[in-house]
Amino acid sequence: MHPSRWDLILEQKPIPVIEHLLEEASRLFAKDLAAWPPEVSEFDPQTGQSLERMLAERPARPDPAVYGESFRLVRWDLSRDIAATDDYWRNQRHLEAGLTAADKPMILFLSRFITEQLLALGEATEGRVTRARMLDALTRVERHLAVKDAP
Could you report the per-residue pLDDT of 29-74, keeping only the tens digit for each? Predict the structure, then answer.
């Protein structure tokens, strides 16, 4: 007997809800990051004033290397690897990635923005999206952004 086209679907394992949530959230977040500049709903009065001015000027979309460095910083932040972040800034590791001192504010903005979005996801799910799952979502966002940036 020849299997019907529905047999393959029925034989697949169900996808856990959390996996589906991470995939959909990462797709939406990648879409937000691809539209430049991303929509920021509020700024911290102490640290956000210079970033608010920077975005008000509608800068050009950052180089992919800026995104890459931002994702690296978010990974360390979610992993609570303060030593790696400290080393990164103290030794100006962004310069090693071919970026300049002028890229630093955008790296900071993107890393903070991405971190806040992922932490908000964890908060919205009442902690079901843990930091480990946020790291998974971050990897998915990177993958989706790479696909959007591909020619």
Answer: 999 898 887 777 766 666 666 666 666 676 788 899 999 999 999 9
Whether residue 34 contacts residue 148, with contact meaning beta carbons closer than 8 Å, is answered with yes
User: What are the tokens at 10?
Assistant: 């029925």
DSSP state of 41: -
Average pLDDT on 97-125 reads 93
Let me know the angle formed at the C-alpha of 52 by 60 and 97, rounded to the nearest 5 degrees: 50
In terms of phi and psi (left: phi > 0; alpha: psi -120 to 50; beta: otherwise), the region of 58 is: left
Q: Take residue 51 and report the two structure tokens written for it.
A: 């970033």
The model's confidence at residue 151, banded by pLDDT at 50, 70 and 90, is very low
Rounded CA-CA distance 148/151 in Å is 8
Cα–Cα distance, 78 to 125 (Å, whole number)? 17
Concatenating the DSSP letter of every residue in 50-111 gives: HHHHHHHT-PPPPPHHHHHHHHHHHHHHHTT-HHHHHHHHHTTHHHHTT--GGGHHHHHHHH
Sign of the C-alpha dihedral computed for residues 106, 108, 110 and 116 taken in this order: negative
